[in-house]
């Protein structure tokens, strides 16, 4: 148990001293990749969403594609292992769906383990989103 406590303490200290979000490099990589391919995401856009874990009245997803109402949430090890996500992440995804926003939760560790890039993962989600929209 002390190993977990030490890790959390280290992460807490590192986060307190950081000057930018830890996932900003991957956000920018994804933003540039998809913008070049004609899918225009917005970075850290406020979206009006009320829900279980949100009393502010909005969410700030990592990336938001306005015309198709799709959000990208980039999840590192804090949010789960890719196959099992935290309750907070599940609640967030449910809140998006209740507001007719299609959420894509990108588990970075899982993608790495399976040998696919986050870009490939998101492209599959976009195709699923298109199919889902046609059926509903």
The pLDDT mean sits at 79
> Would you report the number of β strands?
6
Spatial strand arrangement across the major sheet: 1-4-5-6
How much strand content do the residues show? 15-25%
Distance between the termini: 47 Å
Shape descriptor: globular
**Largest sheet, described in full?**
4 strands, mixed
- SSE topology string: HHEEEEEHEHH
Helix content: 40-55%
Number of helices: 5
- Find the structural class using helix and strand composition: alpha+beta
Short recap of the structure:
With 136 residues, the protein is of the alpha+beta class. The protein has helices at 2-17, 24-36, 87-98, 108-114, 118-135, and strands at residues 42-43, 47-48, 58-59, 63-65, 70-75, 102-107.
């Amino acid at each position: 148990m002390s190993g977990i406590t030490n890790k959390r303490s280290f992460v807490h200290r590192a986060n307190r001293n950081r000057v930018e979000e830890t996932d900003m490099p991957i956000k920018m990589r994804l933003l540039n990749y998809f913008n070049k391919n004609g899918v225009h995401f917005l970075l850290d856009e406020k979206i009006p969403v009320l829900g279980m874990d949100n009393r502010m009245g909005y969410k700030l997803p990592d990336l938001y594609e306005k015309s198709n109402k799709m959000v990208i949430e980039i999840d590192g090890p804090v949010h789960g292992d890719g196959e099992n996500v935290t309750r907070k992440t599940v609640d967030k995804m449910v809140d998006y769906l209740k507001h007719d926003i299609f959420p894509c939760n990108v588990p970075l560790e899982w993608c790495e383990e399976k040998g696919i890039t986050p870009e490939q993962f998101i492209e599959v989600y976009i195709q699923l989103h298109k199919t889902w929209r046609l059926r509903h």
